[in-house]
Design goal:
Growth Hormone, Chain: A, 4 domains, 541 residues, 21 helices
């Protein structure tokens, strides 16, 4: 591209800076709110007097509403336009936050979360579609790097912020604080946000919408609950199979539709398909760390929620700094170098997390997590941008909807699989430890008697009571060590998953160069035809 064209594109993008700032703030609030809630779950159980299985619906319900709205987002954007849809989404999110903040019952809180989710589910694909429309392909890396600020920074800073709020204030602040910020975004959007393309009076595909709602909601419920209930639970089997069947029917129905809700023909584009698969793998790898590290730090090592959150904060700051930088690097070098370097770092640091012991220092974990965050910052947005660059402009909204749907499903499936692996391996290691405490083994019994005698002498206890105390301590130690080993085993699996992503990343290419190659081929073909049209004497010259 000529410098004149680049300058023109730059000027075109600069005029949208206020719009981008508003969009990013709205998206940041929606994503931040979800991660804030996770740390507050134990406090909400006490507040409303409900069990863990009940309170978890505040997260599960939000995820389900998100999951069913994202596939519909392409139709909603086309039907209502970005302005009306963004303002509606922010109103829902703000009203839902207010309801959650004033809630005095679990039912009221649940209503607030569902209203929040209606807004949050639309915002992510909506903002991505707008970014793709504003930025031309040669500058799209910068745009998606800005988009990555909310996508990656909000989940990383959420645990730290929520831990600090809960320790110093009340959990209600997490929701009250969203209200004035949400109102400010709505106010600015009313005056600054304009439709990039006009809304179209398109009719909704009712059959497709029904199949999508049932399919994605039942599948997401099945895979998200499988980690706690087990994959052999009848309800989990039923909902998962039902979800898969409805989604298969939905895909077939959409492929035969003249105006599909979610155009699966985007998968005809090879780099988009490859980028979607790699992004799903990266999502699983990221969620494994977010899920398992707090268990290790808080449940086993005794760190507070704030200390656990503070460990994640430097990594969040690295992502904050690197997200726009990785976008600029994408524009210069393309996706493959960034993906390969990022996934090598992710594989190596994830493997380091397989070496946890009860003596692993806080600083060691912090350094590994910061390096891992650096690797992740090179991946998410550049890989997604690589895929979206291949799609024609008319498929942008369908591409963003598909990418976000894949992320939702892979995130839920990844956490469920890792939870299952972690639980099963912990049980295996505990059973192994218990089997080693064989009363028929003379060496074990001699060591046990010596330990009981030492405990009786040091604690001034009768032998019988000392024996009970020692057995309790041994069971506790076995359980703790089994849990550590279970976490390590889960990270082994995560390392393997990331390794698959690394192998696939070698097949990425910069699709922007495809057009250059096609133009060069066309030019060569034209020159060849011109030569053939010349008279023979001139051709021989």
């Amino acid at each position: 591209m000529s410098s004149h064209a680049e300058q023109a594109n730059g000027n075109g993008v600069r005029q949208h800076i206020p719009l981008i700032a508003v969009l990013m703030l709205g998206l940041f609030l929606a994503i931040l709110n979800q991660t804030l809630l996770n740390v507050a779950i134990p406090h909400l159980m006490t507040e409303f007097g409900v069990a863990a299985t009940t309170i978890q619906w505040l997260s599960t319900g939000y995820m389900l509403v998100n999951g069913v709205l994202v596939p519909l987002s392409a139709f909603l954007i086309e039907r209502f336009g970005v302005r009306k849809l963004f303002i509606f989404a922010m109103i829902c999110f703000t009203v839902g936050s207010l309801i959650c903040g004033i809630s005095n019952t679990f039912s009221m809180m649940m209503v607030g979360r569902v209203v929040q989710a209606i807004g949050g589910g639309v915002l992510q694909p909506l903002v991505m579609t707008i970014i793709l429309s504003i930025f031309p392909p040669e500058m799209r890396g910068k745009g998606m790097g800005i988009f990555g600020l909310a996508m990656m920074f909000a989940p990383a800073i959420g645990p730290t912020l929520s831990g600090w709020l809960i320790e110093n204030f009340t959990w209600r602040i997490m929701f009250y604080g969203m209200v004035p910020l949400g109102l400010a975004v709505i106010f600015i959007a009313l005056f600054r946000l304009r439709d990039i393309f006009p809304p179209k009076d398109v009719k909704i595909d009712l059959l497709g919408a029904f199949l999508s709602l049932v399919g994605f909601s039942t599948l997401l419920y099945g895979v998200s609950e499988a980690g706690s209930k087990g994959w052999d639970d009848p309800l989990i089997i039923t909902t998962t199979v039902l979800g898969v069947v409805f989604i298969v029917v939905f895909v077939l129905q959409q492929l035969n539709s003249s105006r599909p809700l979610l155009d699966f023909r985007v998968f005809k584009f090879d780099i988009f398909s490859l980028a979607t698969i790699i992004n799903m793998i990266v999502t699983v790898a990221m969620f494994v760390g977010i899920f398992l590290l707090p268990i290790y730090l808080q449940n086993l090592r005794g760190f507070t929620a704030l200390q656990s959150g503070l460990l994640l904060l430097p990594g969040a700051l690295v992502m904050l700094v690197m997200s726009p930088i990785s976008g600029i690097l994408f524009d210069k070098v393309g996706p493959r170098p960034l993906a390969i370097v990022g996934l090598i770092i992710t594989v190596l640091t994830t493997f380091e997390f397989t070496k946890f012991t009860m003596g692993t220092s806080y600083d060691t974990i912090l350094v590994i997590y910061v390096i891992r965050s650096f690797g992740m910052s090179l991946l998410m947005m550049p890989i997604m941008t690589a895929g979206m660059n291949q799609l024609p402009r008319t498929l942008n909204s369908h591409g963003t909807a598909m990418s976000n749907t894949a992320r939702n499903v892979s995130g839920s499936l990844g956490i469920s699989l890792i939870t299952t692996i972690f639980t099963n391996r912990t049980t295996f290691h505990f059973d192994t430890a218990v089997n080693q405490m064989n009363t028929m083994d003379p060496i074990f019994m001699q060591n046990f008697r010596d330990t009981v005698a030492r405990a009786a002498a040091e604690m001034h206890l009768p032998i019988q009571q000392a024996q009970t105390t020692v057995m309790t301590q041994m069971a506790t130690q076995a359980n703790v060590q089994a849990t550590v080993n279970g976490i390590n085993d889960a990270f082994y699996w995560a390392t393997g998953i990331a390794l698959v992503g690394l192998i696939l990343s070698f097949f990425l290419r910069d699709v922007r160069k495809d057009k250059v190659r096609e133009a060069e081929k066309a030019e060569k073909a034209k020159n060849k035809d011109d030569v053939l049209l010349l008279p023979a004497p001139e051709r021989s010259r």
